[in-house]
Write a structure and sequence with these properties.
54 residues; mainly alpha; globular
């Protein structure tokens, strides 16, 4: 099994945010949601709007 090391350097996170924001609003929002909640991307992708805002 491969292990994933989380990005903990704030400069790298900010850099990633800037790149994603220029490329895709969707990807930017998924990234920000994921790093702020700790939820895996495989759990984020199936979410619907009403799952978050009820």
């Amino acid at each position: 099994m491969e292990y994933v090391i989380p990005i903990i350097d704030l400069e790298k996170i900010d850099s990633m945010k800037k790149i994603l924001k220029k490329k895709s609003t969707r990807d930017f929002l998924l990234f920000v949601f994921g790093i702020n909640t700790g939820i895996r991307i495989s759990e984020i992708l199936p979410l619907k709007f009403h799952d978050i805002f009820r």
